Amino acid sequence: MRRGVACVLCAASWAVLICAGWAQEQSGPTAPTALAIVTESVPQPVAHTHYDFRLLAQGGTPPYTWKVAKGDLPPGLHLDEKTGMITGIAEKKGEVRLTIAVTDSAEPPHTAQRELTLTSVSALQLEWQRNPVLESDGIYGSVKVGNPSKDPYDLTFIVVAVNQIGKAFALGYQHFTLLPQAAQAIPFGASLPLGTYIVHADAVGEIAAKDVIRRAQLQTPKPLVKE
């Protein structure tokens, strides 16, 4: 290649680089995206069990500052304003609705909000799957027992029918390991003499390694009369 042509090409290359650099300088740094809370829902806290969950945000100018703008977290849970972590031990079951706010470090700062619902559940769940009913010779029904925690339960379940003079008749008994995040249906029933009965169902879950006992109970709201 001749020297003159090489010089022309070199000059052209430098011109392209200079123009590109000038264009980048004129456009300036990329503007941050809008600040937003990207967490749409939170896991259910289990009563009397340790809980931790991190709220997430994007956009704006980190670092962020978090707060509860409206409402309250379930009793026993707390929000770390620097990390967005919700931690603690929920004291009881129940549902709360609240508004979480996050603020970035821009000048002036930007703020984003999101409404969330936290539903704390019982550590041991017990509900009628089939309400106790009178049949030809006795009382029959079923319950569902659930373990929403992260620990297996050594579970004992018993259901009795107590008559008008306080005498109890066994309708069912079970003893088994109830695995974490699991539920099981338990049918029960037995023939009974004539009388008026209230049905009581009791479940006890033991976590031997932690020396912890969980309890749940059910009772029929009205007497069942076998005539």
Please give a handful of descriptors for the protein shown:
11% helix, Immunoglobulin-like, disordered N terminus, 16 strands, 5-stranded antiparallel beta sheet, 2 domains, 227 residues, 1 helix, 3-stranded antiparallel beta sheet, mainly beta, single chain
Task: Report on the architecture of this protein.
With 227 residues, this protein is mainly beta. It folds into 2 domains: 36-120, Immunoglobulins (Immunoglobulin-like); 125-226, Sandwich (Immunoglobulin-like). 11% of the residues lie in helices and 52% in strands. It has 1 helix and 16 strands. The strands form 5 sheets. Strands 11, 12, 14, 15 and 16 form a 5-stranded antiparallel sheet that branches. The longest helix has 25 residues, at 3-27. 19% of the residues are buried. Mean pLDDT is 89; it is low at 1-28.
Summarize model confidence as the mean pLDDT. 89
The helix tally amounts to 1
Number of domains in the coordinates? 2
Characterize the largest beta sheet: strand count, sense, and whether it forms a barrel: 5 strands, antiparallel
Give the fraction of residues assigned to helices.
10-25%
Whole-number radius of gyration? 32 Å
Morphology call: elongated
CATH class of the largest domain: Mainly Beta
Task: Indicate the structural class.
Answer: mainly beta
CATH architecture descriptor of the largest domain: Sandwich
CATH topology of the largest domain: Immunoglobulin-like
Spatial separation of the terminal alpha carbons: 116 Å
Q: Please give the number of β-strands.
A: 16
- Please mark out the parts with pLDDT under 50 across 5 or more consecutive residues, or reply none: 1-28
Beta-strand content? over 45%
Give, in order, the helices and strands. HEEEEEEEEEEEEEEEE
